[in-house]
Specification:
heterodimer, A: Rossmann fold, elongated, B: alpha/beta, Rossmann fold, 9 helices
Chain lengths: 603, 233
């Protein structure tokens, strides 16, 4: 889109937001007491919805027990400001503003710690799918509600009540609620527009690729869940202080589901959608609840199903598109990102030293023996091609080198700084140390654009900024070249999922190079390219190894291409090394001709 | 099978990827569509097979208008498709995948035998989960399954990608043989001319969603024309 149109869009959006802001600020002067009270509650719920949107909508962690964190915030306030009698009834209320503040902070801390424990349990287990965390958090919510009812200090059946902070009147609480929503939205907008926001979406889209780019995915997910829980607990604390009531349903599964419904109906991953969803549904429920007490819940349920079926993205995105078409046209994305070549680096030291040494490596998938004793060395700054029939074990060997947690026989050692050992090192640990693999079939972050993918790859596991949004991405010159040759540079703002297969291949290669690993493991990097394109990509790779000190291990089928490219060739067959030498030696080798090229007699 | 496509247009969202394409594949004919990445080759195949909604155009099989038919009906008419990726059922065994192909057409035991003769590597792994096969072996499985249904038209998207050279030669050999013996028609999409030169009766060059050039590889100068357009246009 043109700059002017972007400006106009920004202006229209700012005007809308400003109008909404003014309306929100003036509302208490116009509305009756009940409306003001309802709005206060709706704002607090909207802040809660924002916290779930960050966790679920952006990072893809479906937290079905989000109410528990909210409840924890409210409970902390209740417990610290009331005294419970022997029969579980509140007998005294105490505490000033300071007590409330401390209680809210403690509630946030408790929720964050509890969420971190739940997250650590869910995410550290290797076999866990993305549904695992949903089931565990659901259980937490159910158990949370049941436990609440059993305790005396929580007020049990009756809950705790009567403790609201009376120094503030209804109108003042209204503004506190508004400020809370503003704070939550502010945090949300800052976070999701930042470089870290990209990482959250990357983890949602493709955890495996994120690990392979060096990110500590498990830790990050625990941190995101804990952060979301803390924000939810803040909302809960404000709710407690404003309403002066905490009881078991606040922890319950029903309330948890309600938060999910707000987010889903509004539009997850949009921040504003969940806010509108929470406010609209909260309003509708309070007015309809009185006229149709029995049918109301059913209506919400039907609306939820309708949204899931007909507008799975929620109501905001289609609404936004409609608005744009009516008023402005074009998409309202921020200004595009661009690539900047980094100055060329000199050769790495230690050329010819051993970069990776494999000794007698064996590996089996169950009863299927894939590798039967592979020994080979990759030297620094070398371009080594791995060839061999389909099923010879090439990709498996590459996977083993890049992942120290796969159980295998023999030994793999690196000549990298700080990673001499291999066994037990996770994919992300090895990636951070400089070993990165490009898969055979493209594995990308579908919603991230080309530029965003390259930006994340550049970080190679370093934590991206939580607030800064990088627009000019510095990448090695080779990446600029690859993008130009493949045509990726004309699609910098296109999401990976919308690229044709060949460009996805090119992007994965470019991202691998952008991460600037010492050892690149490339599984058929030129598949799907034309012969001419292959040649130029080959040229770039060769310069990477000869002039810029990268070590490359590459799987390839096209022998002519291998001939132009490789310093050395290793032929793998039936899980063993059949031959190891220069391309000439390999081409002359009788055994290779017979088994690989399918030539039975010397010509 | 005689396939006739006329005026086919398709795209994603607001963009039109292929526009007004005409193509005929006769019985026993091998037609190749070549072109660089992003030119619309895969989109063309997907629209042709009804996997992507068509914006315009007509598709006819043996003179009968099948434009309105969904994909599974086209398959029952004898069209088999080997897509570029994600074509196998990774959780099923090799054998279960192949049986799926058997269900889709009149193959029977002889087709079973032929496909396993072509890929002896698969014959030894019938019980293995298909998802644990190597990339190249998965391509073999895809091809074997497509042949299993005894199709009358085989639609291949970069089928030899990731296969090692002797295997590519075998596949070409088998396709030729099936064409001669059973009149199999083949439609191939490929970025590289070289891969289809030995096989195709006609080669069409696709450029930004249109066919730019059509040549028969046997005519003199055809190869040079195509190569030139592929690189420079």
């Amino acid at each position: 889109m043109t700059g002017r149109r972007a400006d106009r869009h920004l202006l229209a959006r700012s005007t809308l937001l400003a109008a909404a802001g003014v309306a929100a600020v003036l509302a208490p002067l116009l509305g009756d007491r009940y409306t003001v009270y309802l709005l206060t509650q709706a704002f607090i719920y909207a802040a809660l919805a924002v916290s779930l949107d960050l966790v679920w909508g952006y990072a893809g962690i479906l937290d079905l027990g989000h109410a528990v964190w909210f409840g924890a915030g409210a409970l902390a306030v209740g417990v610290m400001t009331t005294t419970v009698g022997r029969d579980g009834m509140v007998v005294a209320v105490h505490g000033g503003a300071g007590t409330y503040l401390v209680a809210i902070l403690l509630g946030m801390a408790a929720a964050a710690v509890a969420a971190a424990v739940v997250g650590a349990y869910c995410f550290s287990w290797r076999g866990s799918t993305r549904f695992y965390v949903a089931i565990v958090t659901l259980a937490v919510s159910v158990v949370g509600e049941a436990l609440y009812l059993e305790q005396r200090w929580t007020g049990g059946d009756n809950g705790l009540f009567g403790f609201q902070l009376r120094q503030l009147d209804r109108v003042a609480w209204y503004y506190v609620g508004l400020a809370l929503l503003g704070l939550a939205l502010g945090i949300g907008i800052l976070l999701t527009r930042s470089d870290f926001g990209l990482l959250m979406r990357a983890i949602r889209d493709n955890e495996v690729r994120a690990r392979h780019l060096g990110f500590r995915v498990d830790h990050l997910k625990v941190a995101i869940l804990a952060g979301g829980a803390a924000l939810a607990a803040l909302a809960g604390g404000v709710y407690g202080a404003a309403v002066g009531l905490v009881s078991s349903p606040l922890f319950g599964f029903l309330f948890s589901t309600q938060i999910v419904v707000w987010v889903a109906i509004g539009g997850r991953g949009t921040l504003l959608g969940p806010v509108l969803g929470a406010i609209a549904l909260e309003f509708a429920s309070s007015s309809l609840d009185r006229s149709f007490p029995d049918q109301w819940q059913l209506l919400v349920g039907l609306a939820f199903i309708a949204v899931v079926v007909f507008v799975p993205d929620g109501l905001l995105p289609p609404l936004g598109r409609l608005l744009e078409r009516l008023t402005l046209g074009g998409e309202g994305r921020g200004p595009a990102r661009s690539l900047l070549p980094l100055p060329v680096r000199g050769r790495a030291d230690g050329e010819g030293e051993v970069m990776a040494a494999l000794a007698d490596v064996t590996f089996a998938y169950g009863s299927l023996q894939v590798l039967r004793g592979v020994s080979l060395e990759v030297r620094r700054s070398e371009l080594l091609c791995l060839i061999g029939p389909n099923g010879a074990g090439k990709s498996t060997l590459m996977a083993l080198i890049g992942d120290g947690t796969m159980r295998h026989g023999g030994s793999i050692r690196f000549g990298l700084h700080g990673v001499d050992t291999h066994r037990g090192r996770t994919v992300d640990r090895l990636a951070r140390s400089g070993v990165i693999r490009k898969f055979q079939t493209p594995s990308l972050f579908e919603s991230l654009t080309v530029a965003e993918t390259l930006l994340l790859a550049r970080h190679r596991g370093r934590l991206p900024s939580l607030w800064r949004r990088t627009r000019r991405i510095e990448v090695p010159g080779a990446v600029v070249e690859l993008c130009h040759l493949s045509g990726l540079d004309r699609h910098l703002d296109v999401p990976a999922a919308a690229l044709p297969h060949g460009l996805q291949q090119a992007l994965e290669l470019a991202a691998t190079v952008a991460a600037w690993p010492d050892l690149l493991l490339l599984d058929e990097p030129t598949a799907g390219l034309t012969v001419q394109e292959r040649r130029v990509v080959g040229e770039v790779l060769r310069r990477l190894s000869r002039e810029q000190g990268r070590t490359i291990l590459l799987i390839e089928h096209d022998l002519d291409f291998v001939d132009e490219l490789a310093d050395r060739v290793v032929v793998l067959q039936d899980g063993g090394v059949l031959a190891d030498g220069s391309t000439d030696e390999i081409k002359r080798s009788e055994r290779v001709r017979w088994s690989y090229l399918g030539v039975s007699t010397p010509s | 099978m005689r396939l006739e496509v006329s005026g086919l247009s398709a795209g994603y969202g607001a963009s039109l990827v292929v526009a007004e394409l005409d193509l005929r594949v006769g019985p026993g004919e091998v037609v190749a569509v070549i072109g660089r990445n992003g030119m619309g080759k895969t989109t063309f195949l997907r629209a042709l097979l009804g996997l992507l909604p068509r914006r315009a155009g007509r598709v006819a099989v043996d003179g009968r208008d099948v434009t309105a038919e969904p994909t599974h009906r086209l398959v029952r008419r004898g069209i088999a498709y080997a897509p570029q990726e994600a074509g196998i059922f990774g959780g099923l065994t090799v054998e279960e995948n192949l049986r799926g192909g058997l269900l889709a057409g009149p193959g029977g035991p002889s087709a079973w035998r032929e496909a396993l003769d072509l890929f002896p590597q698969l014959a030894g792994r019938l019980r293995q989960r298909a998802g644990t096969l190597s990339g190249g072996e998965q391509r073999m499985l895809l091809l074997a399954r497509a042949l299993m249904s005894r199709p009358r038209l085989l639609v291949l998207d970069e089928v030899c990608d990731g296969l090692h050279p002797p295997m590519v030669a075998r596949v070409v050999e088998v396709l030729r043989e099936q064409r001669e013996r059973r009149g199999l028609s083949v439609l191939i999409v490929e970025p590289n001319l070289r891969a289809v030169l030995d096989l195709a009766d006609r080669v069409l060059l696709m450029k930004r969603g249109r066919f730019l050039l059509e040549r028969s590889p046997s005519t003199p100068g055809a190869r040079e024309d195509l190569e030139h357009e592929l690189v420079f246009s």
